[in-house]
Amino acid sequence: MSEITKQRPKFLNLVAIRLPLAGFASILHRVSGIGMFLMLPLLIWLLQLSLGSAESFEALKSVVANPLVKLILLGLLWAFLHHFCMGIRILLIDVQIGVEKEQACTSAKAVLAVSLALTAVLGLKLLGAY
Amino acid sequence: MNRIVVGAHYGLKDWLAQRVTAVVMALYTLLMIVAVPTVDGYEGWRALMSHGLIRFATFVFIISLCYHAWVGVRDIWMDYVKPTAVRLMLHVLTLLALVGYAGWAIQVIWRL
Ligand code: HEM
Q: pTM here?
């Protein structure tokens, strides 16, 4: 092993360091990914209800009317929107768009804001506000 | 980094696969944003999802999602779970779950 690899810190103490906003958005990308993974059975079940028959389509409506299910779906909505926006940002950075520190910071803020705003707009629809 | 335990070789391939599957899912999302608002009620939804092209796209989406989640979740286990035996077990469980989900979801759309 070279000297350089030896000198690298192995662990970052997430409590001790001040995490920049882009780091925060990255962690949420991970959280949202694992959250969606864990909820896949619920989502496939809902898909199955939506396509099974006219009766199961109606059953889907009453499942979604359950407050707990609504809450989970609201969380998943945010998870998907954040993961989606952050995913696009990562892909753009991969192709060398927005790599500069300042741009990367701005885009991380934009991702956090846009996904929260979209969650609010679509979430109100899910909750039946309009 | 302990190369013996994590293995080697698959890093770049999986990194690329995660990107390709991400692009596929993003395109499918855009397709659905355009298509779904045009349908109404159960019959309309069913008609949309049983259309040949949409079904093809949904199939590719499901496969992409499961491959993407496999790479992503495996990376997360590799980052946080140090004991090799526990980690390998989590890898196997993740893989089996995703294979099952893929079969289940494909069965839902293919029966239409
Ligand atoms: C349009 C949809 C999606 C896009 C554009 C997208 C994009 C991405 C990208 C670019 C990465 C790589 C991140 C990196 O290397 O730092 C990633 C990681 C990941 N994705 Fe997705 N993804 C999408 C949907 C999903 C879905 C539906 C799931 C779960 C079922 C998921 C789970 C994950 C996980 C667990 C990771 C690993 C996160 C990490 O290592 O921190 N993704 N995603």
A: 0.90
